[in-house]
UniProtKB/TrEMBL annotation:
The keyword Repeat appears for this protein: yes
PPR repeat coordinates: 50-84
Keywords, sorted A to Z: Repeat
Pfam families the record matches: PPR_1, PPR_2
The organism's taxonomic lineage, starting at the top: Eukaryota, Viridiplantae, Streptophyta, Embryophyta, Tracheophyta
Record's protein name: Pentatricopeptide repeat-containing protein
Family according to the record: Belongs to the PPR family. P subfamily.
Parts of the chain that traverse the membrane: none
Length: 148
């Protein structure tokens, strides 16, 4: 935490890469609440997160069983100019909690907003949709009534 505390006070602020590496290392130690606290401190100091930072934050929420907080982060990303490369982490978190309906709703929002290529680069939206539908059919047969 000493390095983080020193870095957050520096002017000009160090690159977001330093903060993202620190958050990632602490996340790997399963200190999820510490990562969230550090992220809030960065945000309050005006340090702008990147997509990897957001992915780390969402991963922490999912690991803590707080997928709804991860969804809130995604809502902020949809409203911002960030390129959201973090959706697979949140989809996995929803499936882990057996929240298939929520995963389908997020998937639909992702594809409706034109981010299907983030889920599978170099593939068409139709292909991504078909693959997702097949995954649901194989893993969650009860999801057949949902629209993808």
């Amino acid at each position: 935490m000493g390095l983080f505390n020193n870095a957050i006070q520096m002017r000009p602020s160090p690159s977001i890469l330093l903060f993202t590496v620190l958050l990632g290392a602490i996340c790997k130690l399963r200190q999820y609440s510490t990562v969230i606290t550090m992220f809030k401190a960065m945000d309050s100091k005006g340090i702008k997160a990147n997509t990897v930072t957001f992915a780390t934050l969402i991963n922490c929420f999912c690991q803590m069983g707080k997928v709804d907080f991860g969804l809130a982060v995604v809502e902020n990303i949809f409203k911002s100019t960030y390129e959201p490369h973090i959706f697979t982490t949140l989809l996995k978190g929803l499936f882990k909690e057996n929240r298939v309906k929520d995963a389908i709703q997020l998937f639909n929002k992702i594809t409706e907003n034109g981010y299907a290529s983030v889920l599978s680069p170099a593939r068409s939206s139709a292909w991504v949709r078909e693959e997702f539908q097949e995954y649901l059919y194989l893993k969650y047969p009860s999801s057949l009534g949902y629209t993808v």
